[in-house]
């Protein structure tokens, strides 16, 4: 009991902190009669569905608050039991975008922090675009991120079914209740009539809200259309001149005047519910306590709150998070490159790094810390630390962060992952060969992505001596008697001294050998180490030269034939021809 009380207290504290923050009054005009979103008109007519139309009080202009007396099973189900319940509700019409992943992550972290539950609900009422393949892909991506839901279509739960396409009877039930209460009514307007209303509104510079006759039609008029088989939808009767307010967890107080919203569609004439009606019914019947989503859903909140009120549902706490922006501050989209979780997975990003990065797109813990484990995020996440400003998706930072998480892996895991990447790239024949292990050890500290291993290892195999010596960058080295150093290297190889140093297990052996050449030729620092590097690797940059030489010595047929490894013997012959 003490634990439950503590969790409830933390939830209330989080909401109180949000309420106490600088309140920002937002007045938004909602001018669409369409159920598909603000600023759009949509056709809701299709093949008529034969169904019983409740007509009692259908012409009443009853006030929404009065209609809140409607009794419903879902209202009882939505009564808070003291525990936090959040949901992520993807539409299975494509891949999981990073914006959706961030929404899912914030909900999951909040539920974990509060000891609550996360529900996965599939919003698949768009039958033309929804596919089972997309649903499965979204679930796989969420699972890859480590996000686990407590209830959902694949795991079941007390408040299922968890696909909207399987909940049609429930939606119709509540439409009937709203009609009985006079808060909804059947609308028989044709597409042509709707277009005419739109044109007239535009001409008069009026909000294009619904002004059709069916809001005040008589019982006899409705019955006559039903008898003729005229297609109809159901509309919600919006109360006049009411101010609807919410205390948004992220944005403070948000309010709307209902006069900016016309009577909106609840149920299409083909029997399918519209988005806002589904969401309100589902959230209430699934006992959702907190609705955390992107700010693009803020315009939907007015319709949903009206439905909550009309059916007597408890209104959940809302939190609308900022959009994820591209570096140019526009909304992140495919034109900016990879945007789906699956894309980043294929590119070689770690799920831990992806979670870390997404968590900081609109949230911080109030410190300068940037690298978090999942456990730390679950412990620190709090709603009052979600920011209002847009979060920029910086892929460069994501890659840097991935490198930090990659190097934090234990050596065995790092070796296994990078070795497998080298094998998958057909660079080595075995992921755990001595050569592969040594290659992983050399490049590990410079990697940001596992898939970068191939391009980091390939330069170690070649020997572009002639190209380097002819470059402008090497001009000063060549002019500083490079041939003298090259001759010393060749002599050490011919005498067996260089190979002995490479084979030595003494950590300082290779450095001591270089210093010996420097002492003999009175060279030190860059004048010594750069010509040695060029002589042995053919390059002016790269990992430690001694480690590269040991790597070459380990090659015993491990390197795939498609990649040319130049052994030390061939390098010395090339060096002789170039400088000796």
Explain this structure:
It contains 25 helices and twelve strands. With 580 residues, it is mainly α. Strand 2 (85-88), helix 4 and strand 3 (117-120) form a beta-alpha-beta unit. Helix 16 runs antiparallel to helix 24 (545-554) and helix 20 packs across helix 25.
Largest sheet geometry: 3 strands, mixed
Q: What's the assembly state of these chains? A: single chain
Which strand order spans the largest sheet, edge to edge or round the barrel?
1-7-6
- Number of beta strands: 12
Average pLDDT taken over every residue: 86
Walk me through the topology.
Layout: H1 2-20, E1 26-27, H2 64-67, H3 73-77, E2 85-88, H4 98-114, E3 117-120, H5 132-145, H6 168-180, E4 184-187, H7 191-203, H8 219-228, E5 233-236, E6 243-248, E7 252-257, E8 265-267, H9 275-285, E9 290-294, H10 301-311, E10 317-321, E11 324-325, H11 341-346, H12 351-359, H13 374-380, E12 391-392, H14 395-407, H15 411-424, H16 434-443, H17 453-461, H18 465-469, H19 475-479, H20 482-494, H21 497-503, H22 509-521, H23 526-537, H24 545-554, H25 568-579
Parallel strand pairs: 1-7, 2-3, 9-10, 11-12
Antiparallel strand pairs: 4-5, 5-8, 6-7
Gist of the model:
The protein is mainly alpha-helical and 580 residues long.
Question: Which key phrases capture this entry?
Answer:
disordered N terminus; three-stranded mixed beta sheet; single chain; three-stranded antiparallel beta sheet; mainly alpha; 580 residues
């Amino acid at each position: 009991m003490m634990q439950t009380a503590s969790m409830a207290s933390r939830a209330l504290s989080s909401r109180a902190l949000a309420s106490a923050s600088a309140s920002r009054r937002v007045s938004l005009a909602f001018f669409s009669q369409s159920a598909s979103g603000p600023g759009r008109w949509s056709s809701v007519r299709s093949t008529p569905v034969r169904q019983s139309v409740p007509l009692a009080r259908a012409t009443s202009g009853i006030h929404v608050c009065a209609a809140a007396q409607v009794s419903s099973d879902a209202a009882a189900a939505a009564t808070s039991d003291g525990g936090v319940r959040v949901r992520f509700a993807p539409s299975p019409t494509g891949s999981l975008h990073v914006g959706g992943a961030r929404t899912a992550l914030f909900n999951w972290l909040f539920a974990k922090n509060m000891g609550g539950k996360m529900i996965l609900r599939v919003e698949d009422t768009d039958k033309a675009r929804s596919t089972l393949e997309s649903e499965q892909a979204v679930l796989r991506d969420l699972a890859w991120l480590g996000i686990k839901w407590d209830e959902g279509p694949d795991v079941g739960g007390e408040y299922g079914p968890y696909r909207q396409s399987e909940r049609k009877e429930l939606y119709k039930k509540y439409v009937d209740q709203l009609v009985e209460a006079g808060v909804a009514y059947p609308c028989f307007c044709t597409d042509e009539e709707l277009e005419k209303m739109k044109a007239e509104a535009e001409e008069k510079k009026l909000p294009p809200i619904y002004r059709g006759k069916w809001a005040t039609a008589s019982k006899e008029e409705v019955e006559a259309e039903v008898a003729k088989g005229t297609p109809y939808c159901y509309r919600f009767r919006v109360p006049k001149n009411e101010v609807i307010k919410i205390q948004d967890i992220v944005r403070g107080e948000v309010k709307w005047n209902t006069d900016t919203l016309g009577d909106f569609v609840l149920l299409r004439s083909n029997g399918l519910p519209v988005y806002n009606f589904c969401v309100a019914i589902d959230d209430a019947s699934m006992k959702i306590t907190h609705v955390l989503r992107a700010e693009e859903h803020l315009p939907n909140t007015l319709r949903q709150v009206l439905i909550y009120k009309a059916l007597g549902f408890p209104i959940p706490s809302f939190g609308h998070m900022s959009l994820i922006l591209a570096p140019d501050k526009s909304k992140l989209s495919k034109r900016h490159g990879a945007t789906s979780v699956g894309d980043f997975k294929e590119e070689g990003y770690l799920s831990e790094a992806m979670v870390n990065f997404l968590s900081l797109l609109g949230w911080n813990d109030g410190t300068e810390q940037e690298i978090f484990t999942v456990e730390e995020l679950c412990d620190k996440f709090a709603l009052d630390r979600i920011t209002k400003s847009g979060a920029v998706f910086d892929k460069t930072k994501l890659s840097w962060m991935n490198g930090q998480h990659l190097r934090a892996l234990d050596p065995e895991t790092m070796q296994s992952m990078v070795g497998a990447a080298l094998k998958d790239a057909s660079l080595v024949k075995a992921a755990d060969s001595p050569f592969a292990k040594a290659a992983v050890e050399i490049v590990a500290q410079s990697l940001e992505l596992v898939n970068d291993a191939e391009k980091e290892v390939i330069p170690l195999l070649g020997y572009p001596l002639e190209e380097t010596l002819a470059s402008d960058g090497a001009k000063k080295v060549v002019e500083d008697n490079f041939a003298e150093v090259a001759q010393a290297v060749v002599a050490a190889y011919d005498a067996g001294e260089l190979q002995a140093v490479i084979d030595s297990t003494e950590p300082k052996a290779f450095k001591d050998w270089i210093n010996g050449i420097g002492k003999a030729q009175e060279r030190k620092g860059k004048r010594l180490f750069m010509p040695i590097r060029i002589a042995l690797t053919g390059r002016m940059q790269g990992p430690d030269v001694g480690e590269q030489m040991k790597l070459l010595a380990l090659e015993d047929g491990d390197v795939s034939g498609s990649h040319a490894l130049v052994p030390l013997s061939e390098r010395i012959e090339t060096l002789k021809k170039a400088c000796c």
